[in-house]
Each structure stands twice: as C-alpha cells, then as structure tokens.
Amino acid sequence: MDTPFYVTTPIYYVNDAPHIGHAYPTVAADVLARWRRLWGDDVQFLTGTDEHGLKVQRAAEEQGVTPLEWADRTSERYRETWRLLEITNTDFIRTTEPRHHAAVQQFMQRVYDNGYIERGTYEGLYCVSCEAYYTEGELVDGMCAIHKTPVERVTEENYFFKLSAFEDRLLEHYAAHPEAVQPESRRNEVLGFIKQGLRDFSMSRTSITWGVPLPWDPDHVAYVWFDALFNYCTAVGYGDDRARFDRYWPVDYHIVGKDIVRFHAVYWPAMLMAAGEAPPKCVFAHGFLLVGGEKMSKTGLNQIAPADLVETFGSDGLRYHFLADQRFGPDGDFSFEAMVARYNADLANNFGNLASRVLNMAVTYCDGVAPHARAEGPLVPAIERAFEENARHLERLDYAGAYGAVWELIGAANSFIEDSEPWKLHKAGDAGAVAGVLGDCLEALRIVALLASPIIPDACRELWRRLGLDGAPEDQSLPAAAAWGLGPSGTNLEKGDPLFPRIDTD
Ligand code: MSP
To answer: How many A from CA of 259 to the centre of ligand 1?
Structure first.
C-alpha cells in the first residue's frame, strides 16, 4: 500500500436523479480504482454530490421542500445507485457538509489574501442549467448551446476571480505537461480557449443564499462552481490535515464529461495556482452516452435509470457494456439492442461458456479436484500478451482496448479446448492428457478472473470461489498474482449456474 493514487468523478447535481450518464464516469473511475488497488496502490476514490446553487434552490422550491431536504433525498439516491453498481469509492462528499464549508472558506480567504479576488459589477447572460455566464457569440439562436434553453440577463455586484492573471501560467503548465488534459482533442480545445484570452469571472452571488458565505463578506455566497470544484481538495484534508493533503494532492485523475472540461482544465488549475497549490495531474474528458443520438436530459423521455438496466443485465453487465463496448473519450450511442447483443456474445457465450465448460469437464473427468497447470502450457503466451496489453491500455484509460485484450485470451482458451478435445481424450482413457488440458484451462480461468475483476467484479469473485481459491480476486496483488502456475491445483471445484444467463430478446 505504498504509492498514493487519487481519482475522482464529478460531483453530481442533486436537482437530477441518477441516470446512466452519471453512472458512466463513475464506473470508469471505479474500474481504474480497482485496477490500481490490484497493483498495491493506496487508492483514494472520491465521488459525491454538488448541492448548492440556483439550480438546486429552484428544484427544491418546485418540490416545496428546503434545499437541504431536497439534497438529502437525492444525495441518498446517488449513494444507493453506487452501491448497486458495486462502486468502491473510499469517500462520498456532499458540498453541504461542514468539512466542506470550512475548507472552501479557508481556500477563498487564501485566494483573497493573495490578491486574486476583487470586487466589481457584472452584467451578463446566465444559463441556470450550466450555472455559467456566456457571451452573445457563444449562444446558438440566443439560447444556451448545451441546454438549448433561454439564458437570463443578470446584473450583479460581486467579487471576481482574476482568471486573466493566469493565462501565461496555464499555457506554460500545459506546455510542460501535455498529459494534463486528455484526450488530445480536448487538450487542443482547452489551449484554444486559453489563447483567445481569459476573462475574470464572478465568484460570488448575492442573488441567492444557498451556498458557502465568503468569510470576509458574508452577504455573498460562493459561486456554485467555485465551491464545487474545491470538493476534490476538501476530501483529502485541505485546511484540516496538511500531511494527508500532501500525500494525495495533486490528484492523479479527474474524470469528467466533455461539457465540464473548461471548468476543470482552465478555471480549476488557475484557482489552485491562486492559492499556491498544484494543478491536477490529469483531467480526462469523456464523451456523452447518447440515446437515439441525443444527450439524456432531465426533461427528455430518454433518461434511463441504472437500476432498470441492472435488473436485466446485473451490475457486471452494465459495467461491461459501458466501458468495454465503446471507446472512452468519444461519444457513444446507447441502445438496449446493442447491449443485449454484446452481453450475450461476450459475457454469456465467451466468458460464461469458458467457465462452465472447463468447470463441468474438470468436475466430471477429474473428480472435482483441480489438476496442475503444465509448466509450459500452450496458453502461456496468450496470457502474457493479455496481461501486458491490459495494463498498457488501462494506463491510458482505454478500457475497450484493455478488456478487448482479456477477451482475446478468453477466445484463445475456448479455441484451445476445441482443438484439444478433452472429451475425446477422456473417452480414449488418456487421463494424463485430460488433466494437462484442463489444468491449463483452469489456470487460464484464474488469470481471467484476476484481470477481469475490475470490470465485472461479481462474476469474477464467484468464479474464483468455484475454482476453490481462497479469498477473492480483489485481494490479490499484481504483477505477482498473474504469474502462470499459481493454482488452482488440488482445490475442490464447483460447477454452478451460468455466470451470465443468456438474455432472450423474444
Ligand atoms: N455538478 C457538476 C459537476 C461539478 S464537478 C466539481 C455537474 N453535474 S452533472 O450532474 O450535471 O453532471 C455530472 C457529470 O455527468 C458530467 O461530467 C457530465 O458530463 C456527466 N454526464 C451527464 N450526462 C451524461 C451523458 N449522457 N453521458 C455521459 N456523461 C454525461 O456537471
């Protein structure tokens, strides 16, 4: 448990119920967290809810409850959803928590004392859904380009964050750390935005009370994004435990959607620099999951709750589909039909069949006791390749590539069974050859369970148990545990129901 590794998801607005667009980055962060844990890292994995701002205040008013009552309710729904999806976050932050208010206030005071916050008047066009100001030029037909809803003209006397002072430092930072915004298309977008010239932005509001009061002028509350972004620092001890903060900060990965890259890759590093803290090591921006070509929206009918999919596909099925089935970075289209097809092909057939064939044969032909894998089994090169490719792709958050490599190994093991025909060897009474083939296959299954455990943890845990192995795949440590020949050998095997029952589309 040596190397610290810190990964975050965005914190979700509580005006909206959890849908699959929120599950997408959360599952991505979870797979990364699980994978780093296998490598022995000391992982901090943060998610949570964003509970201040006009948007939440209005949602609560519409429901006739206080903003906090509203936030309590929705925040709990996020927690439930993450439990259902087997998300292994180590912390869940709510921006209404006292620890967050205290940390944000210290941070704001620091930035103010450093001279990067000033008083001024602002008039602009505000999109409540984005909680952001736009210029006329950024609007499409006079509407917010993202939400396609009218913007509001707002005039406020408030405090400004001097973003313009950070243009050069941000450009220098990104020149020295090209990996700090990924993928490259997003990095170019961010650089283009900075080069156009940065405008100071108002970081406080007097029009609402639902927020964190500025310590030097409590008639103002912090602009919701100013407070929200800071959640990442609060959770690792800013202003409370400097040693802990220094251990995990700067964060390794902020996983965010492409709609909030500007906040994370322009505003946020500048805010940190203004307080004398280091910017994030990497902001990784993914595309949207689209349903019928459209982004899911609160008002749209196309909003899908993760729980509905879990009912049909299990949490493993959802996790696999979101990440292994499409590239993480570009937009991906979500369709029920495509999800069923890949579930049946990859999980029920390739993975599930390999497990049940091998276990059934070993129970029948070898009296349920696992034979040894052979020293130089023919599957060894396929395993080494899968292991290396899996790691190489996960380093770059290329989940589809990483798990594609594991499924190639599964394919190789299935072909190996077809080619070596253990049922014929058994009929011919060649017990040694049967044990050799099945020993190799059982060992391949163990390594598949290990490598696939970050993405389909439930099935891998169950497979591990049926192989008669102690503990669970997530207790193992890489790279040692991926070495060929560590077992199962001599363990008691168990057949069982299909790990992934086929889904009949009729
Ligand atoms: N509260 C802010 C984030 C603050 S982080 C300091 C916010 N919340 S959100 O709930 O509106 O969105 C959270 C994340 O969900 C964003 O990264 C957004 O891109 C992502 N998604 C919401 N719908 C999505 C899809 N349909 N597909 C993929 N992700 C999308 O923004």
So the answer is: 7
CA 49 to chain CA centroid, Å, is: 15
Q: Is the CB of 256 under 6 A from ligand 1?
A: yes
Instruction: State how far the Cα of 67 lies from the Cα of 22, in Å rounded to an integer.
Output: 21
Residue partners of 425: CB distance under 8 A and separation at least 6: 433, 434, 437
Q: Are 383 and 504 in contact (CB under 8 A)?
A: no
Q: What is the pLDDT of residues 354-407, one digit of tens each?
A: 999 999 999 999 999 999 999 888 999 999 999 999 999 999 999 999 999 999
Please give the structure tokens belonging to residue 326.
């499409």
465: pLDDT strictly greater than 60: yes
Ligand 1 centroid to Cα of residue 29, in Å, is 14
Atom of ligand 1 minimally distant from the CA of 231 = 6
Alpha-carbon dihedral sign for residues 139, 143, 148, 150 = positive
- Give the tens place of pLDDT for each residue, 293-316: 776 665 554 578 999 999 999 999
Cα distance between residue 223 and residue 163, in whole Å: 14
As given in the structure block, the two tokens for residue 203 are 């970081």
Q: State which ligand 1 atom lies nearest to the alpha carbon of 232.
A: 6
Q: Rounded to a whole number, what is the distance in angstroms from the first to the last CA of the chain?
A: 49
All domains in the chain, ordered by first residue: 336-482 (1.10.730.10)
Which of 368, 357, 371 is closest to 440 using CA atoms?
371
Please confirm whether the linkage preceding 378 is cis (ω < 30° from 0).
no
- Nearest residue (by CA) to ligand 1, atom 30, is 21
Residue with tokens 């509905």: 308
Provide, rounded to the nearest whole percent, the portion of the chain with pLDDT above 90. Answer: 83
pLDDT of residue 335: 86
pLDDT tens column, 217-268? 999 999 999 999 999 999 999 999 999 999 999 999 999 999 999 999 999 9
For residue 302 the two structure tokens come to 């196309």
Decide whether any atom of ligand 1 lies within 6 Å of the 10 Cβ.
yes
Q: For atom 29 of ligand 1, which residue has the closest CA? A: 21
Would you call 451 helix, strand, or coil by DSSP? helix
Cα–Cα distance measured from residue 79 to residue 93, given in angstroms and rounded to the nearest whole number: 10
Contacts of 424 (CB under 8 A, 6+ apart): none
Distance CA 175, CA 267 (A): 17
11 ligand 1 Cβ < 6 A: yes
Using alpha carbons, select from 425, 438, 452, 416 the residue that is nearest to residue 488.
438
- Contact present, 105 and 212 (Cβ < 8 Å): yes
